[in-house]
Write a structure and sequence with these properties.
This protein is an alpha+beta fold and 464 residues long. The protein contains 16 helices and 11 strands. The strands form 2 sheets. Strands 1, 2, 3, 4, 5 and 6 form a 6-stranded antiparallel β-sheet that branches. Strands 9-8-7-10-11 form a 5-stranded antiparallel β-sheet, with helices on one face. Helix 11 packs antiparallel against helix 15. It binds adenosine-5'-triphosphate (ATP), zinc ion and magnesium ion (2 copies). The site of adenosine-5'-triphosphate has 21 residues, from strand 1, strand 2 and strand 3.
Length: 464
Amino acid sequence: MELEKMDENDWRYHGEGNRSLVVSHVQNSQVLRLLKYPMDDAEHARQTTDQAFRHIQNIVDYSKNVMKPLLGEECVHHGEAVKLPLDFLRQLSLKVQQERPESRCDKVMDTFSGCALCLPNLTQLSACRLSKRSPQLCIEIKPKCGFLPFSQHVTQEVKRRVCRFCMHQHFKLANGKWKRMSRYCPLDLFSGNKQRMYFAIKHLLEEPQNNFKIFTSGELIYGCEDDRAKQQDLCELAQRLRPHFPSGQPPSNKALLSELIQAIVGALLGTLEPGHAGEPQRRAPAESRAYCQGSPLHPELLRNGSPGLPKHCILYRILQTQMLDSLDIEGVYPLYRRVEQHLEEIPKDRGRLQIDGPYNEKFLEKVVNCPSEDDGSVEYAVGKIHQYRVAMTAKDCSVLIALAPCGQDDTLEPSLEIQPSKPGFTSSVSILDLDPKPYENIAHQYKLDSKIVSYYLWKMQTEK
Ligand code: ATP
Ligand code: ZN
Ligand code: MG
Ligand code: MG
């Protein structure tokens, strides 16, 4: 990137989350991820360029040195911290303002620090990694937590039956965050049972909220947040997707969407290249992965046993990383208090314990080699908190699936074997949004967990 030539007209609004706003380059396959702050956050406005740069570098280090070894080399792109001219950022901020969904405008883009994260545009991935001829079709899924807590520290029994996502839905509806309930349940997606996965994705399509997006040629065509009140139009979507399908396309819209869902399931279950740290596996009790009573699927389908995920698929790696949260927030919170107390007595230990980084190999080692028995030490407490934070990142990340129709010549060998379920797509998967979750968030998470559970219990009681 040539800094002196930065021109806001070369960039356009691409999307945003709770923490960052993303713009994509109109020609190159690049995005800039800019942090956002609450309107009145004076502290951030006072940050020096060096502090801000350090902060972004921390994000890069965390993706590169912590999340990448856990999730796999080939699916994580850690990007690079960059310094940008303030004038460019101010113009850019003005330019994208009108495109931003209203619901996100409680925060402003950082135009004071001059720092950002530069990443490859993963929604245009197919151009380089898959067939060159095909138009780009890319699906983004934010799968959320795929297991029920198995910790002994869980006090509310309902948490062992209904997953966090399903309980949280009721809370979000009550708070006006969404207008309609999502029927998606992460446990269905992470089940490894193709039928359950199919329904999980169908439910995401029907009510995407912020868990499902579709991009064609790098442009968002489905899953906009500003249409919160509007029912998504699946017929229109199917029409827009038609050109991206292999020739000999299904006749009806319904069949086309069904084929899309099957292609997504196939990509999520596909085998990744080795090149992953080969972590010791975390075994959670089978019940914690079985099923969630909040899922709308027929109990028969749920009970029919699910094979679990094949190793070396992307969902398996994400789930394994999520399961580093072995104590649940209820078990982690007392450890957080222990650390807080220790730091009050010996503040300088904050660095040695790597509470706010650096996120290097030593940090990863603390995560991977944390003892399973509590010896009462502050080191144990910190190790468990590090694990919890890594798991939180894995519960909040997104999977990007680039799909391209198999070319005429590289389709299935002509054979007598009929493979009706095999969709004519090749795929490539990657993971994004791998920021470290702040240590200080733990107190907030503890309160939020209790609020979500209490509200759910109250709601179920009143509905009886
Ligand atoms: P969240 O609220 O989920 O934590 P966030 O504020 O951390 O979100 P991201 O999820 O990193 O932000 O980015 C917001 C959106 O921008 C993503 O959902 C995705 O659609 C898009 N995006 C982010 N990074 C890339 C990338 N490298 N290539 C293409 N699109 C991207
Ligand atoms: Zn659920
Ligand atoms: Mg995100
Ligand atoms: Mg994020």
